[in-house]
C-alpha cells in the first residue's frame, strides 16, 4: 500500500495516546469511587447512586480512545495509493513555438541556445501553472508536438526529447510557424487571452515580408505575438556530430558556418503582431515572458491532476466523527429503540437512493451493447447523457469519442478524444491517443477536407505521443509510419487526394481488456500502396527539377 506519513512523530503519538486515554479514564473512575465512598456505607450508596454510576465506563473510554487515536493519525498526514485532484486555477492559452534548427545547437549561450531555451520554458511554466500550453517545434517546417493542454507531464516529456532531429526539414522558416500557431489558437475554445511565443535566434531564411504579414494576421485575430531571442550577434560555429567526433558545421562550399543572432527580425515580428520582443541579453527570460503575458485576460478553469500518494484524511476523520456522535447519543440517554424509531422515515429514502444507483451502470451497459450491435449513434447518445448527468470520467469520454469515431463524426470525436488523452490513467490515455490518431488519419485521407494536412499532422503527433509512452506497440508504429508517409506525400500542403482509399478507413472499439481499436494490416498496406504511388510521382517531379524539400533559402541550419 506504500503508506507514508507527513509527520511520523504524530503517527507514533497516535499509537501512544489511546493507552494514555485509557489510563486517564481508569484513574478518573477510581477517584470518583473514592469520593462516593465518603458519602456513607454500601446501603446509603445504593440509595444515593445507582449501580450504573459505580461501574467503570469501559465502553465510553474505549470509544473516546479510538477517536483520539484516529484524530492524531489524521493529523500525521497519512498518504497511500494514487488518486486525482481537481485544481481550480486561472490562465491563458499559449503556443510556444520553439526553434529546433541546427543553429540552436550553437554554444554562444551555455550550454547551448536550445538548452537555455528549455530552461526558460520551464521557468515560464513554473511561474504560470494555470496556462494551457501547446508546443510547436519548427525548423524548415513546423510541427505540432502537443495541442493546448494543462498536462504538465506531457509537456515536460516533449521538452526533454526536443532536438533538431525531431523536425524533418532543415533550415529555419518563421512564416509557416506563425500561421500554424495562429490556427492552433483560433481552434481553441473559451474566452481566455491567446498568445504565440516564438523562441528563436532569429536566423530565418524564408521570406521576411511573408513572416511580417502572418504576424499582422495574428494581430487582427487578437492573438499577441511575443518573440524571445537567443544567441549573440557576433555568432559562433555550429557543433555537429560526424561519427564519433564533434565537428563544426560547414556549408555546401566547405566553409565553416557562423550562425548569428538576428534581433531585428524578431523585433519586427513582435511589432507587427502587437506584442513585445525580449532580447537575448535579458535575464530570466521565463519570468519576463510571464510579465508580458500577464496583461492578457485569464480564464478560470478546473484541471484534473494525477496525484501520487494523495492525502487520505476522510478515511480516519469520518469514523472518528461517527464514534463521537454515537458517544454523544449514548451519553444523552439514547437507545437502539430510539434509533429504530427515528430511522423509520430515512430507511425507505435510503433504499430508493441505493436502488437508483445501478441506473447509471445500466446506462453504461446499454451504451456498450448498442455499440457492439453497430448502432454507434445511439451509443454515443447514451454516453452523452451520462456525461450530461455528471459522469466526466476519462473512460466515459474515451467511449463517447470512440463511438463518434465509429459513427464517422470525426470532428466531434477528435475533440472528445483529446480530453480523454489527458487522463491520469495510463491505459485510457494510451488508447485515447491511438483512437485520436485514427480519427485524424481518417480526416486527413478525406479528399474533400481542406484541412487534411493539419489532420495528418495531428495523427503524427498523437502516434508520436503514444510511442513515447508505449514504444513496444507494433500497431501504433505501423500507423505512425503510415501517417508519416502520407505527410511526406502531401509535402506539407493542402488536401489529400486518395480517392481509392475512401472505403479503407481504420476501425476502433470502446474500452476493452484486450484491444483499444486497431487498423488491420491489410487496410494499412492498401493505404501505404496508394501513398507509395503518389511518392513515386513526387520523385518523378523532383527529377525534372522540382525540389520540394529544399530548405528555405537553400540553407540547412
Compact description:
This protein has 557 residues and is of the alpha/beta class.
Can you lay out the helices and strands and say which pair or pack?
Layout: E1 4-5, H1 8-37, H2 42-48, H3 58-75, E2 78-79, E3 82-91, E4 93-99, H4 113-127, E5 132-138, E6 142-149, H5 152-160, H6 175-186, E7 194-200, H7 208-220, E8 224-229, E9 236-237, E10 239-242, E11 245-248, E12 258-259, H8 263-272, E13 277-278, H9 285-293, E14 299-308, H10 314-331, H11 336-342, H12 346-356, H13 358-372, H14 376-388, H15 394-406, H16 410-420, H17 426-444, H18 452-469, H19 474-490, H20 521-543
Helix pairs in contact: 1-3, 3-10, 4-9, 6-7, 7-8, 13-14, 14-15, 15-16, 15-17, 16-17, 17-18, 17-19, 18-19, 19-20
Description:
It is a single chain. With 557 residues, this protein is α/β, with parallel strands linked by helices. The chain has three domains: 4-79 and 314-335, no CATH class; 86-297, von Willebrand factor, type A domain (Rossmann fold); 364-554, Serine Threonine Protein Phosphatase 5, Tetratricopeptide repeat. It has helices at 8-37, 42-48, 58-75, 113-127, 152-160, 175-186, 208-220, 263-272, 285-293, 314-331, 336-342, 346-356, 358-372, 376-388, 394-406, 410-420, 426-444, 452-469, 474-490, 521-543; strands spanning 4-5, 78-79, 82-91, 93-99, 132-138, 142-149, 194-200, 224-229, 236-237, 239-242, 245-248, 258-259, 277-278, 299-308. The strands form five sheets. Strands 6-5-4-7-8-13 form a six-stranded mixed beta sheet, sandwiched between helices. A two-stranded antiparallel sheet has the order 1-2. Strands 3-14 form a two-stranded antiparallel sheet. Strand 10 (239-242) and strand 11 form a beta hairpin. Helix 13 packs antiparallel against helix 14 (376-388) and helix 17 (426-444) runs parallel beside helix 19 (474-490).
